[in-house]
Amino acid sequence: MKYKNLIFDLDGTLWDPRATIIGIWNDVLHQHQLIEKDLKPEDMDQYMGLLAKDIIKDIVSGISDQLAENILAEIVSHENKILRTRGGILYEGVEETLKDLTRHYNLFIVSNCQDGYIEGFLDYYKFNHLFVDFESHGRTQKPKAENIQLLMERNHLSAENSVYIGDTQTDHDSSSANSLLFIFCKYGFGKLLNASYEPSILKFSDLQTCLKAITK
Question: What is the pLDDT of residues 157-181, one digit of tens each?
Fold first, then answer.
């Protein structure tokens, strides 16, 4: 099978933004007296890839929907500004590998993040020219599986020549819902129910070797 289109998750797949965003969450939640002690970057591992409104409700037990929306709006506003100036931690080999992949593949991003988040990532690293298109939950208010479908329809992609690359069970399930081959990033934040799932990669730079292997 010859694949032409690579659709990426963002957090836990291309970068680790925890060190940047954790300070924002702590500042906003402390300001509203919703937490007693600071959250640590590793506290966010279980939430990466989930919707922000669900994260807030889990961190702050019993918070009302309205207050959760208000807090989320404040966090999102700060995140979108700060990520453009501070970025996150780009995984080793991402920049070089992405640049090389563009010679053979069309690159896309679909993430469960807020509107403006992917743009912040692309702007900070000056990656806009590497990606054809992207979609986010924040822009559509739709789940990841539907956003993958939207992006595929908009760009006339077929399941037969497209791959989704991510690090969580949600990524896997969203790929399956669109009949896409899924490549699991073992270095990311999530785990799969099938612990022996393949194809998978241990580091981002392994992606090219993995793609060559699955096209044989």
Answer: 999 999 999 999 999 999 999 999 9
Note whether 136 and 110 are within 8 A (CB): yes
- Residue 51: both structure tokens together: 């919707």
CA separation, residue 10 to residues 63, 168, 169 (Å)? 28, 11, 14
Q: For the domain with range 18-86, which CATH number is right: 2.30.30, 3.90.1720, 2.120.10, 1.10.150?
A: 1.10.150
Strands 15-16 and 89-90 come out as antiparallel
Is 178 in a helix, a strand, or coil?
A: coil
Please give the angle made by the CA atoms of 129, 126 and 87, to the nearest 5 degrees.
Answer: 140
Between CA 25 and CA 21 the distance in angstroms is 6
**Residue pLDDT, tens place only, 176-192:** 999 999 999 999 999 99
Model confidence at 49: pLDDT above 80: no
Q: Does residue 99 have a pLDDT over 70?
A: yes
- The segment(s) of the chain belonging to CATH 1.10.150 are 18-86
Q: Got the DSSP string for 156-209?
A: T--GGGEEEEESSHHHHHHHHHTT-EEEEETTSS---SSTT-SSEESSGGGHHH
Give the separation between CA 194 and CA 47, rounded to whole angstroms: 20
CATH architecture of 5-16+89-214: 3-Layer(aba) Sandwich (3.40)
Tokens for 83, please give them.
């990520």
Burial grade of 144 (CB within 10 A; 0-12, 13-18, 19 or more): buried
